[in-house]
Amino acid sequence: MALGILRPGRGHASWAAWLLRGAAIAAPLLFTGTSSVMAKSPPPDTSRTGTSFASLEGWNKDAHHHALSAFMRFCERPKSLTKAWEASNLAAADVRRLCKIASDVDVNGPGKAQQFFETYFIPSRVDARGFVTGYYEPEVAASRTRSDTFSHPLYRKPPGLEAVTRSNRPKGWPGDISHGRRLNGKLTELPDRAAIMEGALDGENLELVWLADPVDAFFIHIQGSARLRLNDGGVMRVGYAGKTGHPYTGIGRLLVERGLGTPEDFTMSGLRQWLADNPHERDPLFMENRSFIFFREVTDTRPELGPVGGASLPLVAGRSLAVDTRFLSYGSLVYVTAAFSDPDRPSASFQRLMTADDTGSAIKGHARGDIFIGSGDRAGEIAGDIRHEAAFTILLPNPDAIRTPY
Fold it and tell me: Where in the numbering of this chain does the Lytic transglycosylase MltA domain appear (predicted)?
C-alpha cells in the first residue's frame, strides 16, 4: 500500500491522507510484494545540501545496529543498491564490498554500527520541508471457509487481469481506469466495487479467505495487506495482488463534503463509529469508492516478519519507509526527524535512520514519507497519530572510503 500504504486515523499515508484525499492504491503499494521489478532510477535531485553527522539532531542516540540490520536486507540483492546509488558512481563491485564491510560489523560492539555509517556514507540534507505519516498491518479474525460468522470475502486476482498501458490500451478505453481483464483475447473493464458487492464475481471461486466484519475487509483494502488470525488456530498473511483499476474515492472525504463531520472526526476509530451508528448507509457509502483490491496469500516470508513491501522484502517496524520512487530508489538510507514520540522511547521525539523499501500512490515528493509501524491494533493506534512535518537527510555512499582497504 503505499498501498502506499496509508493513515489522522489509523493507517497507510495516514487514514486522513487516504480517506480524505482519496488517494488510489497502486502496485507495488506499501506492502505489495507483487512485483520483483525494482522501481526505475529516480531523476536527479538538486534540492539537497551537504551536512555532517554531528549536525543531525538525535543522531548519536539512534539504535544504529537496528538501522544496520534493516539495511543489510538489501545486501541480499545488491543490484537494487547499485541502482539506488547510480548518481554516486558506485559500481556493483563497490556495493558488494560495502555489504561485506557491513556484514563484518560487530553489532554488539558499542558504537560500531554508528561508526560504519559515519565512515562509509556522507549525509545530504533535503532542503524542502518534509512530511511523514504512519501505516501498519491490520490483524483480524478470519476463516478459510465460509460460515454464518465468516461471510465477507477477500478475493483472489481473477485470471486475465493486466495493467492498461499505451501499447495495449483499447480505443476509447476510460482514461481513469488503469487495469482490465483479458477475456477471449479482448481487454475488458472489470466490475467495480459496487458490482462486486452485488455479486459480479460470484461463481468464479475467487474467494481467498472470509472475514467476520465487512468494515475490516474494507479497511484491509485500503491498507493493502493484513495478518489474519484463523479460526483453526493458524495465522495467514494476505497481500496485494491486483486491482480493478477504478479510481479511488476516500469515504471520509465524502462524509466531510456532506457536512457530517470534520477531518478530525473521521480518524479510523471515528469512521468506524460512524459506520456502526449508520449501518444502513455503510454499503452505499462503500460502493462510492469504485476501487477494489485483490489479494494473495503471502507464503514467501516467515509469519514473525513484517509484510512484504514494494521492494519485495519484509518490512521492518520503525525502520521501513515508504517513499516516492521518482525521487528515491529502494535501498536508499534516510535519516528522519519529526516531532512525535518515538514508539520505543516515548520521552524522545522520532529521530531514526530508515531504509526506503516501500511506496504508495499517496506518497508524493522527495520529502514525503510513510513510516511502517508494525502489525496489530497497537501499531494502528500509533500510526494513526503520525501526521507531522519532518526533516529528511539522505545518506549517500562515499566511494573513496568504500574502496579504501580496511
Answer: 139-296
d(CA 102, CA 105): 5
Q: Which residues pair with 333 in a beta bridge?
A: 355, 395
Bridge-based pairing of strands 225-230 and 139-143 is parallel
3-state SS, residue 196: helix
Q: What is the model's pTM?
A: 0.72
Three-state SS letters, 117-178: HHHHEEEEEECCCEEEEEEEECEEEEECCCCCCCCEEEEECCCCEEECCCCCCCCCCCCCCC
User: In a 3-state reduction of DSSP, which class is residue 48?
Assistant: strand
Q: What are the structural domains of the chain?
A: 62-136+317-403 (2.40.40.10)
Residue 184 three-state SS: coil
Please work out, in degrees rounded to the nearest 5, the angle formed at the alpha carbon of residue 338 by the alpha carbons of 335 and 342: 90
Rounded CA separation 345/63 (Å): 11
Single out the residue of 239, 242, 110 nearest to residue 179, CA to CA. 242
Pairing of strands 152-155, 139-143: unpaired
C-alpha cell at 164: 492498461
Average pLDDT of span 24-39: 31
- Distance of CA 359 to CAs 3, 5, 170, 225, Å? 7, 7, 29, 14
pLDDT at 15 over 50: no
161-184, pLDDT tens digit by residue? 999 999 999 999 999 999 999 999
Determine the residue type at 49.
T
- Spatial contact of 362 and 18, defined as CB atoms under 8 Å apart: yes
Nearest Cα to Cα of residue 15 among 299, 252, 281: 252
